[in-house]
């Protein structure tokens, strides 16, 4: 089990009480002594957008939200524009369909007359074209919000370009939305919950970006791999498309992973137990260990399925791109996997992960053995650690007979494949201390920090390729948070 990357919980907030009071006092002072004057009849603007921004700022100071309303066009050009309160007009009648679930949310429209009307003015040629306020209604027929409440209005929850760039950077670094919010609060030195946007707005931003890039997902992925190959010749990748030119399989190995494989690629663990992408394609990883006993990544793959043909393509591609066969490979006991490795890696010793075998014992034997189940597990553990094949052959039937499992299909099957999982039969092969796919399982868990089931293909490949560098990025972020917290304290 991996140690947690850091012990700090970004969701645990320091005491912001004093800062909240100070922040609210400052907001009240700003409201009491506004830096900008209210709009007035006769005021000029250089553009329609400038007038809209002015009225929006006034609405934010006053406690309401606005929208664009009537437009007077002549010969295709706008000559007059109205900006009104969000509560202007009446709610349209809503058709009720009893067969569907509908939200009966009350409309905010109550016939409010507050508005600002501007008109286009063109005077002498030496003056620019301008817009002038010709009507300005201040009165509202509804209660206005306080300056601190008005920030909850959707029109005022805006993510600036600078904040958007920071959010995407933190997202790529593996931070969750709640953690991103906390980092930005500390960076801006504001109390918890006082950002100009909410978690929902950040999630909507991610969804919008995902939809934008979803249409050309496969093209973006292949473009990324092609550029990476041009930047470093050691970057390896290969892909396969089906009859309809749709991406079916892809394998890639970043340049540093390619170097690692040539140094430490004698033993490889391969696992496909984790599906994490927008298309639910099986994610396969090739993992090993270095000379310090640390797990390292050799390569990754996204497959259409886990059938023999897909796995054969992957194994053949892996050997072709990585330039050598591994001496030993460790996988689960999937028969399709065994067939693919036997055909494409005939010189490689194939072994089964003991964890994948014993994890099924509960379902196989608990109901059958009942109170004897724990004793069976203990005896099986002793069999597993026997030193010689002769001792295993001698003691296996005795233990099986003890629990009356002579005809059990699972026990019979385990004995038939003993050359794939019993250490006594594998001692002449090098496994680097790895007897389970736990090395890849832990990397799978680590991958989950950076990508989700909604991650598109291009970002998926880029995130996995950078995964070791992202670890250090997160550490730097946490250290900066610690320094910020100390300064604020």
TrEMBL record:
Q: Which residues form a coiled coil?
A: none
What Pfam family is a match, any one? HTH_FAR1
Q: What is the lineage of its organism?
A: Eukaryota, Viridiplantae, Streptophyta, Embryophyta, Tracheophyta
Keywords noted in UniProt: Membrane, Metal-binding, Nucleus, Transmembrane, Transmembrane helix, Zinc, Zinc-finger
Tell me where the transmembrane regions lie.
Answer: 468-488
Q: What name does the UniProt record give this protein?
A: Protein FAR1-RELATED SEQUENCE
Recorded GO cellular component terms are: nucleus
Q: Which residues form the MULE transposase domain?
A: 267-359
Can you say where in the cell this protein is located?
A: Nucleus
Entry superkingdom: Eukaryota
Q: Does the keyword Zinc apply?
A: yes
PANTHER family from the UniProt entry: PROTEIN FAR1-RELATED SEQUENCE, PROTEIN FAR1-RELATED SEQUENCE 10-RELATED
Instruction: Show where the FAR1-related sequence 11-like HTH-like domain sits.
Output: 159-211
Which residues belong to any copy of the FAR1 domain?
55-145
Tell me the GO molecular function terms. zinc ion binding
Query: Which biological processes are named by the entry's GO terms?
Result: regulation of DNA-templated transcription
Q: Which InterPro entries match?
A: FAR1_DNA_bnd_dom, FHY3/FAR1, HTH_FAR1-11-like, MULE_transposase_dom
Q: Where is it chiefly localized?
A: nucleus
Family (UniProt):
Belongs to the FHY3/FAR1 family.
Q: What does it do?
A: Putative transcription activator involved in regulating light control of development.
């Amino acid at each position: 089990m991996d140690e947690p990357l850091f012990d700090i919980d970004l969701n645990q907030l320091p005491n912001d009480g004093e800062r909240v009071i100070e922040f609210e006092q400052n907001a009240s002072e700003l409201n009491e002594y506004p830096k900008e004057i209210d709009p007035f009849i006769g005021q000029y603007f250089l553009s329609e957008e400038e007038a809209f921004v002015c009225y929006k700022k006034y609405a934010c100071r006053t406690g309401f939200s606005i929208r664009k309303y009537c437009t007077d066009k002549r010969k295709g050009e706008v000559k007059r524009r109205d900006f009104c309160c969000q509560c202007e007009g009446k709610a349209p009648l809503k058709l009720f369909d009893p067969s569907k679930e509908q939200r009966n949310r009350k409309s905010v429209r109550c016939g409010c007359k507050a508005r600002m009307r501007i008109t286009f003015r063109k005077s002498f040629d030496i003056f620019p074209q301008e817009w002038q306020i010709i009507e300005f209604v201040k009165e509202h027929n509804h209660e206005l919000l306080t300056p601190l409440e008005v920030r909850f209005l959707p029109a005022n929850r805006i993510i600036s370009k600078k904040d958007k760039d920071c959010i995407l950077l933190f997202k790529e670094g593996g931070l969750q939305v709640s953690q991103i919010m906390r980092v930005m609060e500390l960076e801006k030195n504001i109390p918890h919950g006082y950002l100009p946007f909410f978690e929902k707005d950040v999630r909507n931003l991610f969804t919008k970006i995902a939809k934008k890039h979803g249409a050309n997902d496969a093209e973006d992925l292949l473009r990324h791999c092609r550029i990476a190959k041009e930047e470093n010749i050691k970057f390896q990748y290969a892909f396969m498309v089906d009859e309809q030119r749709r991406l079916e399989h892809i394998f890639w190995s970043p340049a540093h992973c390619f170097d690692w494989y040539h140094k430490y690629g004698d033993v490889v663990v391969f696992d496909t137990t984790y599906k994490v992408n927008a298309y639910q394609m099986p994610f396969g990883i090739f993992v090993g260990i270095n000379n310090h006993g640390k797990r390292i990544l050799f390569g990754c793959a996204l497959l259409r399925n886990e059938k023999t043909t897909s796995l054969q393509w992957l194994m053949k591609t892996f050997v072709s791109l990585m330039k050598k066969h591994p001496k030993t490979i460790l996988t689960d006991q999937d028969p399709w996997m065994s067939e693919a490795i036997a055909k494409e890696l005939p010189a490689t010793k194939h072994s089964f992960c003991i964890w994948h075998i014993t994890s099924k014992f509960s379902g196989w034997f608990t109901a059958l053995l009942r109170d004897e189940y724990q004793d069976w597990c203990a005896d099986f553990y002793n069999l597993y650690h026997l030193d010689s094949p002769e001792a295993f052959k001698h003691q296996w039937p005795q233990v099986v007979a003890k629990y009356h499992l002579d005809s059990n299909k699972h026990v019979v099957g385990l004995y038939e494949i003993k050359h794939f999982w019993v250490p006594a039969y594998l001692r002449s092969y090098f496994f680097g201390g790895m007897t389970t796919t736990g090395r890849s399982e832990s990397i799978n868990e680590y991958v989950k920090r950076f990508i989700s089931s909604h991650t598109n293909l291009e970002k998926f490949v880029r995130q996995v390729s950078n995964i070791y560098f992202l670890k250090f990025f997160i550490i730097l972020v946490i250290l900066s948070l610690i320094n910020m917290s100390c300064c604020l304290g």
